[in-house]
Amino acid sequence: MISRFLALALACASLALGLAFPAAAQGLRVTPQIGLRQPASADAGPQQADYIVAVVNSEPITNNEVRRRMLRFEQQLAAQGQSLPPRSQLMREVLERLISEKAQLQVARETGIKVDDAVVNQAEETVARQNGISVAELERRVAADGLGVAQFRQDLRNQIMLQRLRDRDLQAKAKVSELEIDQYLSEQQGAAADPALTEMNLAHILVAVPDNATEAQVAQAKAKAEQLLQRVRAGEDFSKVARESSDAAGAAQNGGVIGLRTADRLPPLFVDAVRDLGPGQVTGVLRSSAGFHIVKVLEKRELGKTGITVTQSHARHILLRPDAQMTEAQARAKLADLKRRILAGQADFATLAREYSQDGSAANGGDLGWSSPGMFVPEFEEALDSLKPGQISDPVTTRFGVHLIQLLERRQATMSPSEQREVVRNLLHERKLDEAYAEWARQVRGRAYVEYRDPPQP
C-alpha cells in the first residue's frame, strides 16, 4: 500500500525548478518519474544475475535498471487508475526511454551541467512535503521499499539535470506571442475547460488493499469504504472521517486534503470522477490498484477565465545567480546569512534586495507585486504558499538561481484580463517547451551510438 500510494502522490507532484513572472523571467514545470520499490521478482527468492541489455555511447544499461524503471511505470499507471499495456510492450518502451535518458544525461555532463547536494535536498524536501511526511520518514519508506536512498537521490539529481539542460538549450524556442494568446482565448470560448487551467482542491479517503490481496480482503476493504461513504453522506464531517479512517499518507494531519492543484497534476481517476461535481459534493467509491477511494470536491475554478475570485499573494525576493565566482552552495549560504540578519533585526529585506538581488526587481526592493495562481511554477509557488504574511522562506533554488522569498500579504481578488493573459502565456510557454524538448530528445537519440545486447527479462 505504501509504495502504490506514494507512487500516486509522486506522479502528481511537480518539482518546480523555475519561476514565471512578468518582471523576472519565464519558467516551467517538471513532473519527476520516481518509483519506490524493486520488482517483486527481484525481492522474492534468489535474484537472477544482472547483465547488460544495451550500450549507449559506451555506457551500459543493465537488466535490473530496466526492471526497476518498469515497476515505477506500472505503479504510477495503476495508482492513477490507468490500464497497463502488455508487459513485453512496456518493457520495450521502458528500455527505449532509458536509452534516450542516458544519451541526454551524457550531453548534460559533457556540457558542464551539475546539480549539488543542496538542490537535491530541496527536491527531496518537496517530495516529502507533498506526501505529508518528513524527509526522514520518506527515506525510511524508500529504503523499506527496496529502491535505496542513494538511488532515489540519484534519480532526483538526474531529473534536475535534464530539466536544466532543457531550460538552457530550448528557452529561445518557446517564446509566446500576443497573437498566440489571443488565439488560445478565442478557441477556449465554449470549449471544455483546459485541465492545465482548471484548479481543484480535493479531499481524499483511502481504504488500502494489500499487495496480492485475497478476494476476501478486497471485499472487506470495499465494505469498509462503503461504510465510510455512508457516514459522509449522512452528514458526518469528511475531514474527521479521513483523520480517523483513511490509510492515505498525511490524512491524520490534514483531514485528507490534497491541496489546490491544476487538474493535470491530479490522478486522472479523481479528475474523471469529479468532472460533473461541484464544491461540497462527494464521489462514490472508486477503485484503483492502491485500494478504494472516496473523493470530495472542496473547490474548483478555471484560471483561464476572467471574473473568478482567487487568492493573490504579494511577495518580494532576493535572487542570487550562481556563476564562476559563486557556487549554488555559496549562494544558499549567503541567503541563509541574509535571512539570519533580517530576523535578528540587523538588516531590512528591501535594503538587502536592492544591494544583492540580481534581477529586475532589485530596484524595487525585490517587490514582485501581486500574483495570482498560475503565475508561478510549483516550486516557487509552493514555497510562497507555505508562508504566512511576514515570514521568510529558506533559500529556494530555481532555474534562475537561488531565492529568498518573503510573503508580505494575501488577499481575495478578481483576476483581471491582464492576469488571465499572463496565466495563459505561462501555459503556452510550457507546452511549446515540451514540444521543443520532444524534438530535441529525438535528435539526441538519433546521434547516439546504441548497441543492443541480450533482451531484458522481467
Order of helices and strands: HHEEHHHHHHEHHHEHEEEHHEHEEHE
Q: Please, how many domains?
A: 3
Give me the number of helical elements.
16
Q: What class would the helix/strand composition place it in?
A: alpha+beta
Largest sheet descriptor: 4 strands, antiparallel
Write out the CATH superfamily name of the largest domain: Porin chaperone SurA, peptide-binding domain
The overall pLDDT, averaged over residues, is 81
The helix fraction, in percent, is 40-55%
Proportion of residues in β-strands: 15-25%
Please give a handful of descriptors for the protein shown.
globular, Triger factor/SurA peptide-binding fold, single chain, 16 helices, alpha+beta, four-stranded antiparallel sheet, 458 residues, Chitinase A, domain 3, 3 domains, disordered N terminus
Plain-language structure description:
With 458 residues, the chain is of the alpha+beta class. It is built from 16 helices and eleven strands. It folds into three domains: 2-176, Porin chaperone SurA, peptide-binding domain (Triger factor/SurA peptide-binding fold); 195-302, Roll (Chitinase A, domain 3), CATH 3.10.50.40; 309-414, Chitinase A, domain 3 (Roll), CATH 3.10.50. The protein has helices spanning 2-12, 40-43, 63-79, 87-110, 117-130, 135-144, 149-170, 178-188, 215-233, 238-245, 251-254, 268-273, 328-343, 349-356, 378-385, 417-447; strands at residues 52-56, 59-62, 198-208, 257-262, 286-288, 291-302, 309-320, 367-371, 396-398, 401-414, 450-452. The strands form three sheets. A four-stranded antiparallel sheet has the order 4-3-6-5. A four-stranded antiparallel sheet has the order 8-7-10-9. It has a three-stranded antiparallel sheet with strand order 2-1-11. Helix 4 (87-110) packs across helix 16 and helix 5 (117-130) crosses helix 7 (149-170). The longest helix is centred in the C-terminal third of the chain and has 31 residues, at 417-447. It is globular, with a radius of gyration of 23 Å. Mean pLDDT is 81; it is low at 1-47.
